[in-house]
Write the structure tokens for this entry.
Amino acid sequence: MHSSLWLTVLLVVPVVGAAVAAVSRTRAYAVAVVTATIELILSLIVLVLYNAHIAGAHTLDFAGRWVLAAPLGLAYDVAVDGISVFMVVLTALVVWLALLGARERRREPAFVAWLLLLTAFTMGSFVAHDLFEFFIFFELTLVPSYFIIAQWGGRERSRAALKFFVYTFTGSAFLFVGTLYLGFAHQHQTGGALTFAYSALASTAMSHGTAVWLFVAFAIAFAVKSPIWPLHTWSPITYAEAPTAGSIEFSALLAKLGSYGLLRFAVGLFPLALPDMRPVVLTLAVIGIVYGSALACVTPDLKRLVAYSSVAQMGFITLGVMTGSKIAMVGAVLLMFNHGVITAGFFLIIGFLERRRGTATIRDLTGLQGPAPVLAALFTVVMLASIGLPGLSGFVSEYLILIGTFATHTWWAVVATLGVVLAALYLLWAYQRVFHGRAAEENATIADASGAERWVLVPVVILIVVLGVFPKPMLDRITPSVQQLIEHVAPAGVSK
Amino acid sequence: MNLTIPSIHYLAILPVMVLLGASLVLLGSVALVRSRVSNLVATTITSLAGVAALVITFVQWAYVANHGATTTIAHAVVLDGFSVVATGVIAVALVMATLVAHDWARREDVRAAEYQVLALAASAGAVLMTQANDLVVIFLGLEILSIGLYVLAAFDRRRSSSAEAALKYFLLGSFASAVFVYGAALVYGATGSTNLSDVSYFLGANVLLRPGLLYAGGALLLVGFAFKVAAVPFHLWSPDVYQGSPTPVTGYMASIVKVGAFAALLRVLVSALGTQMDTWRPILWALIVLTTLVGASLGIVQRNVKRMLAYSSINHAGFMLLGVWAATTRGTAATLFYAMTYAPLVVATFAIVTLVGGRGDDHHDVDYYRGLARRQPWLGGALALFLLAQLGAPLTTGFYAKFVVLASAVDVGGSALAVIALLGAAIAAFFYLRWIVALYAEGDERAIAHHVAVPRATAVVIVLGVAVTVVFGVWPGPLAALAQHATLLFTP
């Protein structure tokens, strides 16, 4: 077992970095980049050190627990397993990409400070092994997100920020009360102190009805965050109005908090509710896939296109999380990571285009392939990964989800496959309109990707290709943890 | 007629005596000293009295910890952990509000000495309410508190809205007091006593065959309290009074009235009428739903920040009622914890509103805040922090305050109520966030840019507010433990 100090350092580094960046007026960006790089290296070290086979600790590693305020049941409790360890890496990677690829020059110290704080809070949500602690971090992510949208966003930023905040805050209300209810139910059973430790709560006995109610309460909060149809309506405007770095953080990272929470807490804590709730959530996920894809076909804006495509992709993840088949669940975790990388790539490139042309409206962009062949090529790679071309990362994860779902829930898988077809349609169509054709006036003179811009996208492309042909190292780490989750859930009637 | 003087435990009433004494000394010197008593002297005396009251609570705490809770003056006044902590909160709020009022008085060129006389008297009334074990004493405390505040609301004589607010507050407040007294009389008729312990004992030992009188009395008491804490539908006075009163008074009002009234409410409902819980809980349930939802919803349409804060304070009252509704030790501790965190927070918020109000105290449109955090990052940042805390963001005391009251409600089966209350908080987020948006807005033609001077005393209050909000927001353990211990010593 490794020391939990590693995870604590992962939480502290961005906070310190944010504080230093906020007070260093001119060097803020450098401080932030250094912090993000250290954070990335640390997260990779955690990934390498991670050992899934510690006797008696299930698949948890780096575990440590300290009670902070006993009357409140408040504790600092961290650990990672094969699922969260990749979320930790994704968190560090995404902020690194966002900082390097989408530099924001207006009031930079404040901006990078918020961004680093957001990283710390997201990291906290992923390493928290205590429900209440998770909730605190989960709520905390709202504050930097709000300020990033409200201060650095586009024209509609106030409305977008407000919509985002109130939507998520409302969703959290249910999670909050559900958390409290579970904590007290556990306390009344054991007669001991109030605790929200995950492993303790997981053994709470509850009636079927209670489990369903609690599952619904949790699922609402996570469905808003993911977003799952029909609670997605905040996301297009938020992704479109946020500054590029913000869009990257929200879609690539914060959305994963929703699916991660669904997997870890809603499914993990309330297995009794699954037989009843599974068809409902699966249906919503499939509707989300088709609906998101359909809207992505008609939206006039590249950022919104990626936002709707994210709704569809998150639908796939939800599908994988909820089916209960091991393969699909592994695929869902893989897709959480891959979608994070791919979406970050998308928003980076859209950010580059926006920087040049001042717009992300598809109609205003044509024939960019001529003046900017490298950008076009990079976009192609990311796009093909998103479509699910075999050999690229998106394929592996979607394939696993679909075959897993097909085995257990055939018809849902059949409809979901439509999403794959539609993805090819809207992405290729968008590519045609933006990059093919004859470039007129302003479009004809845009500069191709600069050296820095190319270098930022190199890790994205490498991850897309490597994880497409050789996902085994990831699968080896994810599978034992998923297996363990399924074994915990299985007695309550989960198929295979 | 045989008149016996009941034995008096002076330590128990020492804070009240100190505060009232300081008030009288100040009043006497205003009348007797030929030259005008300077603001500085008045503020110093008031602050010292507040600090003395705070220090006395430490002694009281030690006494209670060693000897247990006691009652004195014919069981009319209690000294228990709960009253000690509540007294401490009032003392802190008094000192903070005094410092704000000092700078305000200097800016507005009003005579602070009279102001401080009234503030001291009002806080003595609030302290008495937290210690009251008799409906008559509660009434006494309520009136001392209220009469002081009626006059304070009218203190800015140059603004007609101040007089208007005071009149409104006075009329509705005295109406509420009358309702309260009538309720007390009916309870006396039903149980034969106004003493809370006796009422509780009587109801525990007897079954009322015709409880109508008691219910009517209890309902009137509840209405009286609901007026004082501005629970919907008895809230109508509060936005106008908040808006019209001088801003430091509003902050003071928002903090100490809540502490005093909630302490007394807990004693009446939980201690005295605890046996009738099944009757009053549904009523309170409805009151909480209305208070959290209506308070938040009406706040959205306001443009005047003082009115916004009035609705915000209504919303907070709804949350504090959750702890009362729970009617458990946990609930009592939760409401106390809420008061402990809310009082300094709201005084500090109004301190900033006082500063931005400017000379004449009328710059209270939300547009006056546009870009404040851009021009003055520390001041604007502090206000943003206070608003986030009121909203209930984690890492601030506001989050744990909401947490403990919701936890106490969920603990006794109030999950639905907790969800409704939180939806109220989500609605309230609209106006807090709109204000924050204004703080960080870029300067445009609507911006009314002016530099907000921050005098020293007010700066101390703001820094104190930030410190309390952040330190106990990150590390709520000590405060939570204090609230819990305080209710372990709750009597009867």
Observations:
- The two ends of chain A are 30 Å apart (CA to CA).
